[in-house]
Every structure is written in structure tokens, then in C-alpha cells.
Design a protein that fits this description.
By secondary structure, the protein is an alpha+beta fold.
């Protein structure tokens, strides 16, 4: 995170111009002219500063200039042009840092930019294998140049003898192409290895490769011709001595091979991972779930972990992995799940099991829940292994527990964990990345989740369905009784009327946290939040009170009413067999499904008793000949962390280091029972680290994760491992 300047003659470092930017993340590109220097990188922020005021406080910023990494840039007089991994090219006013224009069209990250000598055209090269020509007067795309079969990594605009103009493109397909200004490829050369960057010198082109070599190419074959007497055409200028003047690769600088890009490797593996439809709730996807488990296990094995796959009876495999430094050293344990929700919604814009990159987001089922975060953690471990020189030199032991039934009730998980606790010996902390930020810009720490009770209320009477024309009015109908029971549960303001329902809730603490939540009000636009729910407005309360209702107060929701049977039934019941005449049928049995979310200090079993008592008391008051039955389907524990614990400080430090901003402390209204199970079994605290934004759509159509969040999440994980290891204090032996 340092910008350095060197003397152009002696190459000596100019200390007085060196700028430290400790919170900006890795810098990926810069551009300089006589007065200004501009640069950008992984934090998506565009920075510019005048050459004579090279101090951080004098920088001009365009915060969140792009939705993903800024990969390339150039300066046109008073304008900065940027290209980024979100597929967009943008123009910025250098003085005000305001956006002037945004060009869309590429279907992959923009990796290279150049411009014509007079600045009337900008050329952008992309990882979609194309080059686009942008007209600076009309502000539109004039042409798309195709020919490369892989990422376009470098572009150079060439003017020969002040007359003829050419464009040079360098690609990962190991070719260099030269184009005339009719945008036709007029020459192609092959490279020996994949290039990483290029730069134009005096009549020479320099191309660097991944082996640390730089090749020098003479451009004298682009001989200018004022006429076409030699038989050339406007699309094919006469070339002379092209092959003779070509210089083979040679080493200009001796340098060690740079690390291979982990991000590109991770994206490819994400595509492979998402392509496996590991839907745990569908029997027909059992083989896919097994393939996803093997994919996870083999990836960890390649990283050097000791792995084990355990298949609970009738359930998908659980993958265990361990990178051991010392059996007595502390262990960093990561939990995740490779199974996903179905993707049957008709509103998917793209194939849910094929990663699609749009505007810096990866779309696909499992990208944010939970395959993306799993890969981010695995790659964080890989980079730590590289950094420390091997598994045996890692700062602490690292263990992973990846299950395949989380979306289907985590069947077999508790037993597998209990029988294999030795894999997680000396666990210092447990990390789970299966929640979301509250907004789009600030990283968050989730330190509380509600528990969940699901139960059904069954009302039944007649032995069979009856005809409403023949029998209507002759009996008390089960559906009418159920509606009366359910309508007695809440008042018009959504307050639950069941006696004892709010027992255990500390309302004084809720009031204190409402005050604290006021600091989060800028994270969510209430109108946009309502629009995202498909409603005109949300509850008539303050933003902080809304959060308290979503996070800190127990709720009860009626989520389904069925006729003929409960959720156990293989069909909807006989009522649904009547086709168009179904409105003449009185069902003999009806079932209402109820979902209760409760908070950490409540006793779920007392809550169940309170609900049962209320339902039976209400039903007795109906004086009905029907019968009622309450069935508890599932109970999942609530969880609340201790934000004063030193591990929360370590996490906050890691997040600020990577994102440059203090994290928000948030709750979630959802439920993740495995959190409590892991804490109780491994006797260690859990940290919930969301990677994705609030708009990631887990469980819904168009699930996605922003590429910046995925790559920065990897960095957060590796930084946290080091923070925790450095703060660990082993007990002194007596």
C-alpha cells in the first residue's frame, strides 16, 4: 500500500515523494502526467493527487468509484479514465472527482486502456476477449474488435512517422495483434508464455510475462506508406521485414517468478463449484451433493490438508480437514456448507448453476450461501501457507468442517461433530461466514441470531370431505375453527397476544440497543427497503425500532394453511383432487403452519407450552365438535455472542485493516442452530463474519456476491488468523 517515485536517470528512490496508504488495500494500477498522479486498486476507490503535494491528506477521492477492483486507468488532460472488474469504463473530472460518463458493453473485467494521440478515442481491452472503441465526442461505442481467444491484458496506441496509426493488443492467448484504424488485424505474432503487462517505448514494445522476463520487440516492420502502389489496401498496409525485425524473448531483468494470481484461480474454481447442483432437499440431487463433497475434499487435499469424508446414514457427507502445525497449538476452526437451496424461481436472469459475471457481481446459486465464502477461506489458507513457507510454519492450526445438510435441517451434523471432536482439538475460535451485511458499503460483525420454533396446528372432524351445498351449515367446519384460533394470536399492530410469549425478553436492554442502532440508520434506505419487499411502506416506526423488531424481539408468523393434511403428507389431500369444483368442498382436516423466532434469553420449551395452552384454551371457547392437535416440528437454538471478548477486537481490527473502515455490529433475525452446537461441543466462542451485501439474495432468485467482497473476504480471513495467533496467550505451566 505504498506509492513510490524513482529518479528516471539513477532509479534511486525519492523518499520525500513516497506515500503510505495503510488502509486502502492493494494498489493495482496508476497513471501519472506532469501535474497529477492517479491510482486505484482493490478497495474500488479512485485517488488522485498533485505531484507537489504528495501527502495522504491532499488526496482527492471518488469513493466506491466502481463495484469491483480498479484494474487500469489513463489520464486525458483534465479527465481520468478507469476500467474495472465490474466490466465498466468510467470518466472522472480530475478536479472534482465527479463521474462524467460511464460506458457499458463489456461482459468481463476491463483489464487494459489506451487512447488515440488526439484523445478522440479510447480503446478498452477486456477479459471477454474483445476490444471496444469509445468515441469521446459522441460518448458511445463505435466498434467492437474480436479476434483474441482469451483475456486482453494490454493495449498500446502506435503512431509511425507521425502518420500511420495502429493499435497493438496483448492477450493471454499468447498472441500480440496489430490493428489498423479500420479495426482490421494486419499482423499477429505468437508469444512463448502468457503475458502479464506491456508498455510502449521509442519504436519498441516491451511485454512482460509470468516468469519475470521482459521481451523487447522492434516496431520497424510498421513501415509507413503514402500510397498503395505495392499492392497494399487500406485494410492491409505494406509491411516490410516483419519477421526479420522481430526479436525473440530475452531477459532484461533477472527476477524471481511472481505468485500466480490466486483470484483468477479462485474464480475458476467458483465456476466449477457452482456448476454442481448440490441441492440437499431434493433426493434426485444426492449424487450431486456427493460430488460437491468430493470437490471440497480434493481441493483441501491439494492444499496439503489431512481430510476425511463421513457419511451419516441417509444424509450427505461431512468433510473434515486439518492443517496441523503442532497438536498442542491453538486451532482456528471454520464451518461452512456446500449444499444449496433449489433454484426453481422463474425470475432467475441467468442459469443459476453457471456463474455469470455482471457489473462486478458473480451470479449463481451458492455464490454467497455458502460456496463463495468456503472458497475464500480455503484460498486464504493457501496464501498463508505460501507466505509462511509451508503448513508446518503456519501461525496456528487450521481446521475446517464443511457439511452438506445445512439447508435441510443439518441432519447427522451433531452426531458427526461429537464423534470427531479430536479433529478440532484446542479450538480457540469458530468462524462461520453465512450471514450478510446490513447494507452495501460497511463491513459487519454479526453477534446475535434468533432461534426458531416451527409447529403445526391441526383441526379435524368429519371422516371425509363434504359438499358445501349439501352439508354447509349442518356442522362446525374445521377451516372456520382454525381461522378463529389463528386470528386470536395477534392484534392489529402485530403484537402477539399469547400469555407468556415475551417472557425472558429484557426490554430495558432492547431500549438501550435501539439507541445504539441509530448509528446504523444511514446503512439502509427505508423506501428502497420497502420496495425490495414489494410493499409500499414498512411499519410506522423509526429505523432503530424496525431493527429491534427484526432482531431483538420474538415474533410469530403464520406461514401456511393446508387442507387435508400436514407437512408430512405426500399430497395436499383429497380436497385438491376435485379440480374446478374444489370450491364446493368442505375439507375434513386443515393444518396451519406457524414459525416462531425467539431471542437468546428465552426458553423455547416454555414458549411451546405457552402456545399450546393458548391454542387449546381458545379452541375450548369455540364449543366445537372438532378436535385440535399441536405438533412441534423443529426447535433451533438462538445465539448471542459477547462483543467484549478479545476475539471480537481481533476481528474488528482485521476488518478495518482490509476495508479501511470500522465494522458495524449487527444482529440477524434468522436462525443458525449449528452456531450454538459448535460452541457447546468445541467449548470455544464463534464469530459470524458476513462476506456478502444485504442485496445478495441468498435462497432467492438471482443470488450473487460482489467480486470485491469475495476477494476482500479472503484477505479478512487470512488477516484474522494472524491477529488471533498474535493475541493468543498460552497458559503458563506451573
Amino acid at each position: 500500500n505504498r506509492v513510490c517515485f524513482h529518479d528516471k536517470d539513477s532509479y534511486e528512490l525519492l523518499e520525500e515523494k513516497t506515500v503510505e496508504l495503510p488502509s486502502c488495500g492493494p494498489l493495482l494500477t496508476l497513471c501519472a502526467i506532469e501535474r497529477y498522479t492517479a491510482f486505484g486498486g482493490q478497495d474500488c476507490v479512485l485517488r488522485a493527487v498533485q505531484q507537489h503535494t504528495m501527502t495522504e491528506e491532499n488526496f482527492k477521492f471518488a469513493a466506491r468509484a466502481h463495484n469491483s477492483f480498479i484494474l487500469c486507468m489513463l489520464i486525458l488532460e483534465d479527465t481520468i479514465c478507469t476500467g474495472a472488474a465490474d466490466t465498466m469504463v468510467k470518466l472522472w473530472n480530475m478536479e472534482t472527482m465527479e463521474e462524467k460518463a460511464c460506458f457499458r458493453g463489456h461482459k468481463g473485467p476491463v483489464a487494459a486502456l489506451t487512447m488515440s494521440r488526439n484523445g478522440d478515442r479510447i480503446f478498452s481491452g477486456s477479459r471477454d476477449n474483445t476490444i471496444r472503441v469509445w468515441d469521446m465526442e459522441e460518448m458511445c461505442c463505435r466498434h467492437t474488435m474480436s479476434g483474441h481467444s482469451n483475456d486482453v491484458m494490454g493495449l498500446e496506441f502506435i503512431k509511425v512517422n507521425g502518420k500511420r496509426e495502429f493499435l497493438c493488443s496483448v492477450s493471454l492467448d499468447k498472441t500480440v495483434r496489430f490493428w489498423d484504424m479500420h479495426y482490421t488485424c494486419i499482423q499477429l505474432f505468437s508469444l512463448k508464455t502468457e503475458p502479464t503487462s506491456s508498455i510502449l517505448g521509442d519504436s519498441k514494445l516491451y511485454v512482460a510475462d509470468a516468469n519475470g522476463h521482459i521481451a523487447e520487440w522492434s516496431l520497424d516492420f510498421l513501415e509507413d506508406s503514402d500510397d498503395d502502389s505495392s499492392g497494399g489496401t487500406p485494410h492491409s498496409p505494406r509491411l516490410s521485414r516483419s519477421m526479420e525485425s522481430f526479436k525473440n524473448h530475452f531477459d532484461v531483468f533477472s527476477s524471481s517468478s511472481p505468485k500466480k494470481s490466486r483470484d483468477l484461480e479462485m474464480v475458476q474454481l467458483l465456476k466449477d463449484y457452482i456448476a454442481i447442483p448440490s441441492i440437499s432437499g431434493n433426493l434426485e440431487n444426492q449424487d450431486d451433493c456427493f460430488q460437491a463433497a468430493k470437490f471440497t475434499s480434493r481441493l483441501l487435499e491439494k492444499c496439503g490438508a489431512v481430510t476425511k469424508m463421513i457419511k451419516p446414514e441417509g444424509k450427505n457427507p461431512v468433510v473434515l480437514a486439518r492443517f496441523e502445525v503442532d497438536p498442542d497449538a491453538p486451532t482456528f476452526t471454520f464451518y461452512g456448507h456446500y449444499d444449496v437451496q433449489p433454484a426453481n424461481e422463474e425470475t432467475w436472469k441467468y442459469n443459476p448453476f453457471e456463474v455469470t459475471t455482471v457489473d462486478g457481481f458473480f451470479y449463481g446459486r451458492g455464490t454467497t450461501d455458502n460456496k463463495g465464502p468456503i472458497l475464500a477461506f480455503i484460498f486464504a489458507v493457501k496464501e498463508l501457507i505460501d507466505k509462511y513457507g509451508g503448513i508446518g510454519r503456519l501461525p496456528m492450526n487450521i481446521a475446517l468442517l464443511i457439511e452438506g445438510e445445512e439447508e435441510n435441517g443439518s441432519g447427522g451434523f451433531k452426531e458427526t461433530l461429537a464423534n470427531n471432536v479430536h479433529w478440532f482439538k484446542n479450538t480457540e475460535l469458530i468462524v462461520i461466514s453465512n450471514t450478510l451485511w446490513i447494507g452495501k458499503d460497511r463491513p459487519c460483525i454479526t453477534y446475535g441470531m434468533r432461534g426458531m420454533i416451527t409447529l403445526s396446528v391441526e383441526v379435524y372432524g368429519p371422516e371425509k370431505d363434504l359438499h358445501s351445498g349439501n352439508e354447509g351449515g349442518a356442522l362446525k367446519e374445521p377451516m372456520t375453527d382454525l381461522i378463529k384460533i389463528l386470528s386470536s394470536i395477534q392484534d392489529p399492530s402485530n403484537k402477539v397476544l399469547i400469555p407468556g410469549f415475551y417472557d425472558g425478553v429484557d426490554f430495558e436492554e432492547v431500549k438501550r440497543k435501539i439507541t445504539m442502532f441509530e448509528s446504523l440508520k444511514d446503512s439502509i434506505d427505508m423506501n428502497k427497503y420497502a420496495q425490495s419487499l414489494g410493499i409500499d411502506s414498512v411499519s410506522s416506526c423509526s429505523f432503530a425500532e424496525l431493527l429491534s423488531k427484526k432482531w431483538l424481539i420474538p415474533t410469530l408468523s403464520i406461514v401456511d394453511i393446508r387442507t387435508g393434511g400436514g407437512s408430512d403428507d405426500s399430497t395436499h389431500g383429497s380436497h385438491y383432487c376435485f379440480g374446478p369444483t374444489r370450491f364446493s368442498v368442505i375439507p375434513h382436516k386443515v393444518v396451519g403452519q406457524i414459525s416462531i423466532r425467539f431471542v437468546a434469553k428465552q426458553d423455547p420449551h416454555k414458549l411451546v407450552s405457552a402456545v399450546e395452552n393458548h391454542i387449546k384454551t381458545t379452541f375450548a371457547g369455540l364449543n366445537s365438535s372438532n378436535k385440535v392437535n399441536v405438533k412441534v416440528r423443529n426447535i433451533g437454538d438462538a445465539w448471542e455472542g459477547d462483543e467484549s471478548h478479545r476475539l471480537y477486537s481481533a476481528l474488528a481490527s482485521a476488518l478495518k485493516t482490509c476495508w479501511g473502515d470500522n465494522p458495524l455490529y449487527t444482529y440477524e433475525g434468522g436462525t443458525m442452530p449449528v452456531t450454538s452446537t459448535l460452541e457447546k461441543t468445541l467449548q470455544a466462542p464463534a464469530l459470524l463474519i458476513p462476506l456478502g451485501q444485504s442485496t445478495d439474495n441468498p435462497h432467492l432468485a438471482n443470488e450473487r456476491i460482489r467480486s470485491v467482497n469475495l476477494f476482500q473476504g479472503k484477505r479478512v480471513f487470512s488477516t484474522l488468523v494472524e491477529e488471533v495467533a498474535s493475541s493468543y496467550q498460552p497458559a503458563e505451566s506451573s
